[in-house]
Amino acid sequence: MVSVRDHLPPGLPPDPFADDPGGDPSAALDAAPPGEPLDANERMAIEEDLADLAVYEALLHRRGIRGLVVICDDCQLDHYHDWDMLRANLLQLLVEGTVRPHEPAVDPSPEAYVTWDYCRGYADAMMHARDDD
Predict the structure, then answer these.
(1) Residue 69 belongs to what domain range?
(2) Half-sphere exposure (CA, 13 Å, Cβ side) for 23?
(3) pTM, full prediction
(4) Where is the composition biased (Low complexity) (predicted)?
(5) Rounded distance, CA 47 to CA 17, Å?
């Protein structure tokens, strides 16, 4: 029998669930219920968020900002999301109608993340600064 491990480079640690696929906690991710189809307004809002995200990243990435901080509705803690993860989440939401669970940033530097409101204000200020020139 050919396994997935047969196609991986040598030297990797063994798969702890190779002999017990039912014990693999990642199986719960595959069992996540499908999302609800988005209506036209929801799709438009996500597409606008994607466009805004591109602007925010273009303006702030070069200044050392790695992404956004969002207060989680479930745990009330700050969650730090890099630009690429945000884009992937929004695209997944647009296509599947849901965002699957993902790993949080490991040991993030809070000063490298800003809020959506900060991004909006910064982008607005940059637009007005260009108008004044």
Answers:
(1) 40-132
(2) 6
(3) 0.70
(4) 23-33
(5) 39
